[in-house]
Design a protein that fits this description.
This protein is of the alpha/beta class. The strands form 2 sheets. A 7-stranded mixed sheet has the order 4-5-2-1-7-8-9, sandwiched between helices. A two-stranded parallel sheet has the order 3-6. Helix 3 crosses helix 4 and helix 4 packs across helix 6. It contains 6 helices and 9 strands; from the N terminus they run βαββαβββαβαβααβ. The longest helix has 17 residues. The mean pLDDT is about 90. It starts with a strand and ends with a strand.
Amino acid sequence: MLRVLTLSTLFPDSTRPVFGGFVERQTRGLVAREAVEVEVVAPIGVPPWPLRLHPHYRRLAGVPARERWKGLSVHRPRFAVLPRIGDRHAPALMARRLTPLLRELRGRFSFDVIDAEFFWPDGAAAMRISRALGVPFSVKARGSDIHYWGARRGCCEQMVEAARAAGVAT
């Protein structure tokens, strides 16, 4: 049995039902394979008060921290973000928030690999989590994570480091 932890900051929820639909379809395809189990961690970045009152972030407050989404077990922990000024810190902030949760989750769902769906910030965060938990990770390049974030100071270097550290980078 292969147990996969899918890590994706783009995954549908009740406020954004088609957000990251391609990741959902890929994950559902993986679950359909024989001898594969998957759980999804779809972290939601939320800025500090008063920025979290902005309508973009306020609507995410109602998204449950854990749910079944079309048959998939999905965890939606919140992590701190600093819009515009703190982009390069997003992976470290995400990893700091997720590592204790994933350590606890491994007690129930002993995943074999972390499958990061994007290089930014997922892949750079997965690299940190992988090191903390001793679990290999894979990472995917999807487009804007490379073209947009790769041009941002402090982000490109972390993505290159994640590519070198990953068991598989596609």
